[in-house]
Write the structure tokens for this entry.
Amino acid sequence: MQKTVLVTGGTGYIGSHTVVKLIEAGYKNVLFEDFSNSKPKVLERIEQITGVRPAFVQGDVRSLEDLKKVFDNWKIDSVIHFAGKKAVGESEREPLLYFSVNVEGSIVLLNTMKDYGVKEFVFSSSATVYGDPGYDEFDESTPLAPINNYGLSKWMVEEILRATYKADPTWSIALLRYFNPVGAHPSGLIGEDPNGIPNNLMPFIAQVAVGKREKLMVFGNDYPTRDGTGCRDYIHVQDLAEGHIKALEALNSKPQLLTVNLGTGNNTSVLELVKAFEKASGRKINYEIAPRRAGDKAAYWTNPSLALKLLGWKTKFGIDEMCADTWKWQQLNPNGYPD
Ligand code: WQD
């Protein structure tokens, strides 16, 4: 039987790549989106890639009325919840906004699911829930101690989900803790389209390569790492999207609460990523060494073994593919999606 998945934040960066994979895997989708950080054009691009235009409802996850438009009109089997705010700096300036959208939004969504008897839920969590445990390789038993409001909001929703499952173990819930998603669909038709000046490294490098920004600021070169710059576990968004399909398959097999890190297990420094992008693009990436950014840890990555064990999932793509696909997207869409 063809299953119907509600994808909140379905036109966002990770959401859109996952929707393409869901369609390819034979799922029916309903996208729910407020377009606060994405464009309607994404729907057209998904159709261009897959030949399928997904069903779509515009709304706010905090609105029961908006959510009812989905649950009253489709028989939803599972929910993948991407909708949320995700900028660490902004979360420090606007804590209430982050707790409202990320925490309250999740509660309203879960309550609505409960009312309609839908109990299969995949949640976009983040490696940010770990904070800095004093070591670099994180596994799922690493203590949860977020150091910013964004991470705190993800941790709160995790606790709400653990409590929900504990009270009613007929729920089937996956908490997926993402490391650093980068890359784009190999077609170059969908990709990351940040608002304004990118906060994150890969989109910033891509904008320097395409000539939109003059140079990259490298935040610190005196960390205790291979070359002094920060190291992260970058994961190709195509691999990450595939992880969601695997999580849905696992949830479908029996009610459970799954918690897994999604990353490669490798780590790449800022300067190594700059080099790899220069190779992929054939462009020179100008950069300047700047002071460390507050709140940054020198290095961290995942131990990817639990994801392999529980989901049968591991990443396929390396840094070169991440850079090549980001570059293709950036070249085809130098100003992001058109309005
Ligand atoms: C990577 C490295 C920077 C920009 C953040 C969030 C996390 C998750 C992913 C979820 C670091 C350095 C960066 C720049 C630089 N978000 N850098 N110059 O900080 O690991 O994770 O995004 O939605 O919650 O915290 O990713 O890409 O910002 O930084 O030198 O202009 O690049 O110092 O070492 P980060 P990032």
